[in-house]
Amino acid sequence: MTTESQREAESKRTAVKGPYSGVLRAGDLEVRLARNEAEIRASQNLRYRVFYGEMTAHPSDDMVREERDFDDFDPLCDHLLVIDHSGSSNAEGMVVGTYRLIRRPVAEKLGQFYSATEFDIANITALKGEILELGRSCVAPEHRTRPAMQLLWEGIAAYVFHYDIEIMFGCASLPGTDIQALAEPLSYLYHFHLAPKPYRPRARAERHINMDMVKPESMNARRVMASLPPLIKGYLRLGGFIGDGAVVDEQFNTTDVCIVVKTNLVTKKYFRHFERTARLVDEGAEEGKAGDVSRNAGGA
Questions:
Q1: Domains of the chain listed by start with CATH number
Q2: Cβ(31)–Cβ(24) under 8 Å?
Q3: For residues 132 and 160, what is the distance between their CA atoms, to the nearest angstrom?
Q4: What is the pLDDT of residues 50-61, one digit of tens each?
Q5: pTM
Q6: CA 55, CA 169: separation in Å to the nearest integer?
Q7: DSSP tag of 241
């Protein structure tokens, strides 16, 4: 629940800084927020191709007809896009990566964060600082390379610093719904990356799946870590933690865990890099350049 003091702080922050409008460039690639309905639809088309084409999720009839992945959160949240300027000139052909970003004001309008449909996140939403839910992440197959992925994360970093985000969280998925087949990675996450209690999400009671299935001494932690999906590994390398309990998502044919990242626990290397990126974006915006900053996304 958003408190009156949190609403007041958000109002002051937006009044001082204004909405985020930063743009980052690396060669033909650009990362920024969607600016219109056509770009949001293009991100939804990409999500549909990845989630329902590649990952065999189960779309609704409306989604099949429109070839888009969408829900009630999309019209109100921010959509971070990776746009390729070397190809098609239409929005759908240009959007090659996306991340959905939800802050308190959007969650308040809709009554909850998306993650709350699977996890009890009351201890996170009760925190006084700014929080950000990350979700619906995907990148087109031909762009799953270091430059595109890093540029996407730089965009998130700039957004985080613009709004003084203290906690990032969201659902992350392991492919498949066979819990026994996922026993080792789920147990690894539980034993080695469980979130501290003050901000530990917990799978909702009616959907909770125990993650403690394999004892830590009987697994090869290095091998299991290497086998995790790239997105989950990325969060863990940023100092991320995992909530207690997994949830089966039948629609997406996945088993979900809740990720929590305290931005002040990000490694010094990434923290300095994110802070430098954010400062460049904000300075560019203040100078009337619409936040357009060209940089090489190849370095860390």
A1: 21-286 (3.40.630.30)
A2: yes
A3: 8
A4: 999 988 889 999
A5: 0.82
A6: 22
A7: E
